[in-house]
Amino acid sequence: ADVDECLTDENNCTKNASTCNNTLGSFECLCRPGYQRISTFVCAQVTQPLPSSNGICSVYR
Q: How confident is residue 51, by pLDDT bands cut at 50, 70 and 90?
């Protein structure tokens, strides 16, 4: 049987910035709107996107 890591302390998702999504045999952290993934389990708030040379915002400060 699959263990729901989202219901235990086994998940390392950033509590205020992401939600835990249980998957078969594991889990994933999904960033909330206004946050961007900076590592496997950490989402950080996006403050101001900087446009890249091709017009797509890809760098954040």
A: low
Neighbours of 43 (CB within 10 A): 21
Domain ranges of the chain: 5-60
User: 36, 58 in Cβ contact below 8 A?
Assistant: no
Which parts of 3-61 are beta strand (E)?
18-23, 26-31, 35-37, 43-45, 49-51, 57-60
Fold of 5-60: Laminin (2.10.25)
For residue 1, what pLDDT is reported? 82
Answer whether 0.85 is exceeded by the pTM: no
What whole-number distance in Å separates Cα of residue 40 and Cα of residue 45? 15
Using only C-alpha atoms, the chain has a radius of gyration, in whole angstroms, of 14
